[in-house]
Design goal:
Blueprint (H helix, E strand, L loop, with lengths): L11 E3 L6 E3 L4 E6 L2 E4 L9 E4 L3 H9 L2 H6 L8 H10 L2
Antiparallel strand pairs: 1-2, 3-4, 3-5
Length: 92
């Protein structure tokens, strides 16, 4: 049996809100632009990235825990308005 028949492993990331490990495809990548947290839908923005489940509950938990400034190693509060808008539209 050759090694080529095995399925490729899917990368896992940790949600900064609920701290659950999940497949990267099921999480939303967030990037830092200036002092704003912006959703990185294509996963191509430069710099550090943080991952969060695209649900309002996980996003609120991450904001309340101040997980984004910690993940980006940034000083002070960050603007999450655009991120809240995108997650709010994605919610059923």
């Amino acid at each position: 049996m050759s090694g080529r028949t095995r399925a490729r492993p899917c990368p896992e990331r940790t949600c900064v809100g609920c701290r659950q490990r999940s497949a990267r495809d099921g999480l939303l990548r967030v990037a830092l632009t200036g002092d704003r947290c912006v959703p990185d839908l294509r996963g191509t923005l430069p710099g550090r990235g943080a991952y969060v489940h695209p649900t309002p509950a996980c996003l609120e938990l991450a904001v309340r825990r101040r997980a984004f400034p910690r993940a980006f190693r940034a000083e002070g509060p960050l603007d999450t308005g655009e991120l809240r808008r995108v997650v709010g539209q994605a919610a059923p």
